[in-house]
TrEMBL record:
Residues 34-460 form the Major facilitator superfamily (MFS) profile domain. Keywords: Cell membrane, Membrane, Transmembrane, Transmembrane helix, Transport. It is a multi-pass membrane protein. Residues 1-18 have a biased composition (Low complexity). Pfam families: Sugar_tr. The chain crosses the membrane at residues 49-67, 73-95, 107-125, 179-199, 219-236, 271-289, 309-332, 344-364, 370-395, 407-428, 434-455. The lineage of its organism: Bacteria, Bacillati, Actinomycetota, Actinomycetes, Kitasatosporales. This is MHS family MFS transporter. It is found in: Cell membrane.
Amino acid sequence: MSASATGPAPAKSAAPSPASGPNPAAPVNPRSRVLIASLIGTTIEFYDFYVYATAAVLVFPALFFPSSDPTTALLSSFAVFGAAMVARPIGAAFFGHLGDRLGRKKTLVVSLLTMGIATFLIGVLPTYGSIGWVATAFLVLMRLAQGFALGGEWSGAALVATENAPPGKRALWGTFPQLGAPLGFIIGNGLFLVIAALLPSAAGADPSQPSQAFLSWGWRIPFLFSAVMVAIGLWVRMRLVEAEVFTKTQETKQVRKLPLATVFQHHWKQLILGTFAMLATYVLFYLMTTFSLSYGRTATDAAVPGLGYSYTTFVLMLIFGVVFFAAFTLISGPLADKFGRRKTLAWITAGIFVFGLVWVPLIGLGTLGVVLWLVLGFTLMGLTFGPMGALLPEMFPTSVRYTGSGISYNVSSVLGAAVAPFIAVALWDAGDGSPWLVGVYLSAMAVLTFVALLCSKETKDVQLEAGESPA
C-alpha cells in the first residue's frame, strides 16, 4: 500500500505467532466477558430494530400512516422502515471514525445509548390521531436515530469478538454478535406475542388483527422495555478493556486521522466486495421476517391475498423458524474456521439461490410446507449470517477496521434490506397474490453475492495485526 494523504503509511509488522500470547502487562478481557459483551449489545440493538419491524406490520400503518388503501398504508410504514437503513451507513461512518480513533469500547457505549433512547421515545410518541403529521415526522426521526445507532453497533461488536479471539477460532467467536439477531427477534416478537395474548380481541373480531387495547397502548410496552435491556448492556460493556491489537495501533502511532478517507482511497475494492458478499444475506433475512409476517397474516380474500394465518399462529411459526436461525449461526462458525469463509459462504449462497426458486412450491404444500419454508429459510440465514462476523473485519487493517467493516455491512443493508420489503410487496402484488416473483428476486441477489465471493480472497489465515491487511 502507498502512503495516503491521511497519514504516513504504517510499517509492516510481523504476523504474531499463533503460539504467542498477549502482552503479560496488558489487561486482558476474559473470554466470557468478550462473548457476553459482543452478544448482549447486538441482542439489544436487534431487539429494538425488530420491535419496530413488527410494529410496522401490526400497528403503525393504522396509527401513523392512515390511508383509505391498506396496501398504501403498509407500503408507507415499510418505507420508513427502509429509511432507517439509509441512516445506517452514515452511522457506520460516524461511529467507525470514533471506533478507529478513540477505541471500540467507548464507541459501543455511545451507539447503545443512542439506540436505547430512540426506541424508548417511540414508546411514548403520540399517534397521528392526536397530533397529525407531526407524530409521523417524529416517528421517522426516531427511526432514523435507530438506524444511525445500529450502523455503529454491529462492527464494534464484531471487532470485540474477533480481535480478542484465540487463533483458529475467529469465525466461531464472530458468531456471537451475529447470534444477537435471532435472539433479539425472539425476545421482541415473543414479548409482542405475550402482550397480544393478554389483550385479546373482542368476540367476533377478526383474529388476524390486533385488539383495540393493543392498538391503544399495548404496542408501547416492548419499546419502553428497551430501557431495562440497555441498562444491562451498558453495565457489561463498561467493564471491557481494549483489545491488544488496537492498543498496539495507538502505541505505534498508526491511528488514522481520517479513517473514512483511507478506506475509500486504499480499500475501495474490499468495500465493494464486502457489501455484495452481504447482499443475499440481507435480502433473505428481511424477506423471512418483515415481509413474511405481512404475507402470512394477510387475509386470503384481501386485495393482495396472503396465507391468512392469525397473528399469534404465524408469529409462533416464525419464532420456531428463528430457533434454527440461532442454532445454525453457531454451527456456521466452526465450518468457516475449518473450510474457510469464502468456500463455506459460496456453498450457502448457492443454497439461497435454489431456495428462492422452490419458495412457492413449498408454500403450496399447506401448513407443513409453510413451516418447512420458514425452517429452511432461517437455516440458510444462520449459515450465511454467522461467518460475516469474521469475514468483514478480516478484510480491513486495524487502523480502519471499524470503519471499513461497518460501511460494507451497512451499505449492504441499504441495497439488500432497505428496499427488500418494499420491492417484495410490489412483486407480491404483481404476482396476483403469489410470491413467486419474490423468490426470483431473492435468487437474483444470490447470484450477485456469489460473484462477489468468487472475486474475494480467503481471509481465514489473515492475522488481525496492527498495520496494513494482507487481504
